[in-house]
Amino acid sequence: xxxxxxxxxxxxxxxxxxxxxxxxxxxxxxxxxxxxxxxxxxxxxxxxxxxxxxxxxxxxxxxxxxxxxxxxxxxxxxxxxxxxxxxxxxxxxxxxxxx
Length: 99
Description:
With about 100 residues, this protein is an all-alpha fold. It has helices at about 5-15, 20-30, 45-60, 65-90. The chain is globular and about 40 Å long. The termini are far apart.
């Protein structure tokens, strides 16, 4: 991981418990289109992070409640938080426009 996007993600996930970090990275890997290949900027992460957070939230709501649901919800929250952080760092004015 030596590109700015990978380093940004690694830095923010460094202290997360392994199970949570793995769930978040797996969810990012399942986003249609995945992480950007060409425009590798922190700003380009916002869409995939948000999409992964939404997918995990839908998964938690659809499935039966279980101990695993807590991990799914925490991963969803973490990804949504990272999306907001990426947007705040790369385009602070866009936060006012975000839905």
